[in-house]
Amino acid sequence: MSLPNGPRNPNFVLTLQWIAKPLEVLEELDQKYGDPFAIAGSNFATVFFSNPQAIQELLTANPDLFDCGLGNKTLQPILGDHSLILLDNERHQRQRRLLTPPFHGERLRTYGKTICDITEHVMSQWTVGESFFVRSYMQEISLRVILHTVFGLHEGQRFEQLRHLLSSLLDSIGSPLSSSLLYFQKLQRDLGPWSPWGRFLRLRQQIDQLLYAEIQQRREQFNSSGTDILSLLLAARDELGQPMTDVELRDELMTMLFAGHETTASALAWALYWIEQLPEVRDKLLKELKSLDDSDPSAAAKLPYLAAVCSETLRIYPIAITAFARVLKSPFQLMGYQFEPGTQLVPCIYLLHQRPDLFPEPKRFKPERFLERQFSPYEYLPFGGSNRRCIGMAFALFEMKLVLATILRRNQLALTNRRQIKPVRRGVTAAPPSWMQMTVVSQQKSAPTSSAALIR
What is the pTM of this model? Predict the structure, then answer.
């Protein structure tokens, strides 16, 4: 087997660097070895690609050549064996068909007012002249949105328990140090409730109890007119007329909670950072937002400059650093290399988005680039690609636009500290640091909303 240049038999230090500073490691390896580069151990090799032609060939190849679920085993302790992310072939296609409808079209627009109301409710905690931790509040918004849209939960004991436990679970593997638990199986040892892995397992067990209790209650009191995603999934049937099992529902619910909460919160925090860091971006955005009609909560989703700001936010610091690894099941030729079974082929989203031939001045935040041209799904892929693209992409962008529009129309914000901020490891993603703060300079009172009681 021929392999591209890259480190051979990588040592423990490189692994720690990858966990602590993934973007810096990728840039250093790219500069030293070029594209593609391979990290080869004694048992298997991982090859990173950032060439759009190579990524196109990889993403359009026969999916039966790959085992993508195996490449995502790091997430198994959180998501479970039946998560869409860990499935392949017919099982993956079945789950994808069952899960896709709630996230698209008219169904998506029904959530618009809820997203705006939740944002208004969380913003009501801000006071003029006081600073707040940006990522923390964006997490609060995104978690409330997920609990409301997925479960129909907006208050009550189960809502509060899930809200607290999910935050605690994600925090338990959130820092660069604690995220090592996901990358080193030897650390996954239950040494009691005070040990890192023991605490994680007990938090997961408590969440599972709540999820299974909610599933059982909803089956017993099934409402065919329910608009939340769990109701739709309970009603869904595959080609054989079979519903999803409780275990399948649990794992898909955890996948939505995990993938739809932290990722959106980080993207929102980055967007606010860039908007407030660059007055010219903020001024253009505020001018566009003035055209919004308050009678249509979803109107912000159609604004072109706001969409460009969201796209550029996900380009410059994508939350997912790479697309899912494709683990070869058969020999495969790509870019002149013959790769053997077991090799992991990885489209590198971060390095692709940093290519100056595609994105001139790639370190510069410039939303206009998305108004000047349209990028192919092999040049820009913040949500991955092909049959593994995130099914929540449309929902995430919709939520992101509405939350930003609601915040910026009601508040004038300023970065508390204007020093440059770099991404940090947050579990398996890259996120803005938790200490990033903004100050509320002034506020405009919002009009009362008829559904405000929903999120109190």
Answer: 0.92
